[in-house]
Amino acid sequence: MTALLLAIALATPATDLKRAKDRYEFGAYADAAGAVRQVFVQYPDLPEPQAIEAWRILGLAEFQLGDQAAAREAFVHLLSIDPDHALDPFLVPPNIVDFFDRVKREAEPQLQPLRERRKQLKEEERLAEEARRKLLAEEQARSGPPAKLVIVQERVYIINFLPFGAGQFQNGDRTKGTILAVTQVLFGAVNLGAILLHNAIADDPSRRCSVTSTTNCSNPPIPDSDRALLQNIDVVKYVSAALFWATYAYGVTDALINYVPRVETEVTPTKAALKLSWQF
What's the alpha-carbon Rg for the chain, to the nearest Å? Predict the structure, then answer.
């Protein structure tokens, strides 16, 4: 029951149409037609692009099922929305394309007024947009340059996981970012230095026990003094590595807690800034 309720909550016209299209492409024409009809029931006010796609799938499915009357009805509904619509001959079988074109020719007397009306509406929308732009331009000329500007900063989520305070710098906390960067560089340098020093001592053939050595060589081939030194270096190496990763984990956690995907800052521009922005 919970899964069903979740599926219903997540359903959208786009996902349902995608499901219907997939069923058609798999050859389940009856399922595709039923899925489209269910879309019309659930979403009676489909946006124009989705309505066109729904009627297209329904017409194709009904034709494949042998019901040309239902296919014709679906294609007429499609053409009533988009009188100039055409099926892609590379994706649709030729017999369906021919059938659709025949339906379109037969409905041409009714489609022409629709086509003219669509052109008229588009022209009215263009004129309205042109008037809106003109109004805003005149207001801009009357009031002069904007008194305030809004700076929009889009922040990148993955930066939160970078070391050296990158997430803090992105979030605008420069002090904390500087502290994390300095400490991580310090711990990283100490760790790298300890590794190099350890390898240099351990790989130095001149620091080996000699055959005649009787003191300072209880566990050859490394002298006791060097063995103790290497152990101390190992402590420094592991502690510095632990501190580096601890500060890294803290930095990531802090960056994620304070992360804001989009920041809008309102500023009062100077004349120079305004001049630069206009030139740009």
Answer: 36
